[in-house]
Amino acid sequence: MAKLKYRNKLAEMPSYDVVERDWHIKVNANESGMNLPPLVEERVMSRLSRVAFNRYPNEDLEMLMEAIGRNFGLGVENVLIGNGSSEIIEKIFYCFGGRGRKIVFPQPSFSMYHIYAKAAEAEAVPVSLSEKDYSLDVKEFVNVVNDNKAALCVICNPNNPTGSFTSLEDIEYIASHTSCAFLVDEAYIEFNGQTAIGLMKKYPNMIIARTFSKAYGLAACRCGYMLAAAPLTDMIGKSMMPYHMNVLTLVTADTVFQMRDEFIPRIQMAIAERKRMEGQYGSLKGFKVFPSNTNFIFLKYDKAVALNEYLESRGIGIRSFGKAPLLENALRISMGNRDENDAVFKAVKAFVEEQN
């Protein structure tokens, strides 16, 4: 075979591992532990039965954008829809990236930030979170952004995988002391509630990214949205392909958004389960549980790698971070239903007792 001319440095691109196995209990991806509420599912199926499959999804996209904008007191011109917030973040990195450009974000945080920066041919400039409690030193963050003349700065709030939260006062400090584009990734905000959307009008360089995958259980549909001032959505929208959203996703997401109150009990249950399990894991010898504002627990344990292997052998999938920077011996456990959470804890406890 002739030597093919791939894009420069493509072979150096890291991969995001999405390979799964047939887990008995799967709590490794921060997904919702439940499918759609019955009433929502019924409405979704009813609407899908009337879809015009032969037409491009213009009206459906506009309908969802209008509903989202109206909910936040914004117009259609302030909203972009993407295939999960991941696509939106990737497009933002692309739009503000390029050779010689720098993008600043905390570390550890969403691992795709590094990959998106590399794909955008930009230089990633990570700012380490506190090893003690994984908090962000916003003054240091601002200094790094300004010293590097960054084109974009990003925070994930609440943060994945640490569950830590940056206060609105600190977010405003970043917004008021930087002049570049500022992305706040709010993938888990429904589990905390303190959104930065109210700061957008005061700081027109701010961008909010959200997803339907976590609180609303639409990980399979791949739908997210971005809120920003019209000049930002206009420019970032240029990176989107025509008809990039399929009508099945749009109809489902629009139905879920209209019926989002149906999910409130599930969100509250996930929060209650997280708090309950934080107490359970905190009682185990050698475990350090960090406060979380999400639908998962983040903890450290000296034998985390061995524990993960033990759980895998029993068909239980949690997230182990190996030797990732600042994440040595760290584990992330998503909240499933009560029985699943109890089963995972029972297995973890059995391992710990075997070690003593």
From TrEMBL:
Pathway, per record: Amino-acid biosynthesis; L-histidine biosynthesis; L-histidine from 5-phospho-alpha-D-ribose 1-diphosphate: step 7/9
InterPro entries membership: Aminotrans_II_pyridoxalP_BS, Aminotransferase_I/II_large, HisP_aminotrans, PyrdxlP-dep_Trfase, PyrdxlP-dep_Trfase_major, PyrdxlP-dep_Trfase_small
Reactions accelerated catalytically: L-histidinol phosphate + 2-oxoglutarate = 3-(imidazol-4-yl)-2-oxopropyl phosphate + L-glutamate
Keyword Transferase among record annotations: yes
Domain Aminotransferase class I/classII large: from-to ranges: 36-346
The entry's keywords: Amino-acid biosynthesis, Aminotransferase, Histidine biosynthesis, Pyridoxal phosphate, Transferase
GO MF term list: histidinol-phosphate transaminase activity; pyridoxal phosphate binding
Entry-linked PANTHER family: HISTIDINOL-PHOSPHATE AMINOTRANSFERASE, HISTIDINOL-PHOSPHATE AMINOTRANSFERASE-RELATED
Subunit and partners: Homodimer.
Family: Belongs to the class-II pyridoxal-phosphate-dependent aminotransferase family. Histidinol-phosphate aminotransferase subfamily.
Protein name, UniProt field: Histidinol-phosphate aminotransferase
Organism of this sequence: Anaerovibrio lipolyticus
